[in-house]
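Marked as duplicate of an earlier ticket. Keeping the data here for the record.
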Amino acid sequence: MSTLYMIRHGQASFGRRNYDRLSDLGHAQAKLLGEYCRGMGISFDAFYTGTMQRHLETADRFFQGFSGEKKPYPILTEMQAFNEYDPEAVLKTVIPVLIHEDPDFSKDVETMFNSKKSFQIVFEKAVLRWVSGDVQAPGLVSWEDYSGQVRHGIAEIMKAHGSGKTVAVFSSGGPISATVQKALSLSGTSAIQVGWQIINTSVTRFKFTTDRIMMMSFNEHAHLEMKQEKEWITYR
């Protein structure tokens, strides 16, 4: 059997014009994870990543810590299958439906970018409705299709590295949730709710063969806990 490490990106730039960049803390989290894996004596046979900036920056900082800042870094294979779903498209499509059903919901929508509580209420309700499949629109990828793309990417890794290998994937909460869903046969709703617990630069591990995948651990973040400072534990 082989082992798959699915690594969530470091803290991104939430609330900034370009979210798809690591914050200073995100860079530090990723480098710390690399140092931790090097200290644990973990060796990898292959590295994959989504194509988003925050994935690539996380991989780069991880390699910096993992290699002791020695170059060249390992070969990194980019796959769109490990990109995050489009939350802007989900919110744009689903929010009007929710307001139509409950006009009072507009109060949280109006303050969602000034209040973390309102943002969480709006985001969670909209995403859960999207995952249910009840709301559809031209150009909006369904959760079923999205998670299917992730599963296809995982299947490619399983086919290529199904025996005695250790593989790392730098990705986001959505692909990790979809992989957990596949491994545990969860509903889409349960999978996305699990995904909201995933900490930046945490590791979720799976065991796999060419045709089976099983979850080994979830949301490991000992490298952050060792700092003994709550500021290192982030979710966006």
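See parent ticket for discussion. The radius of gyration is 18 Å.
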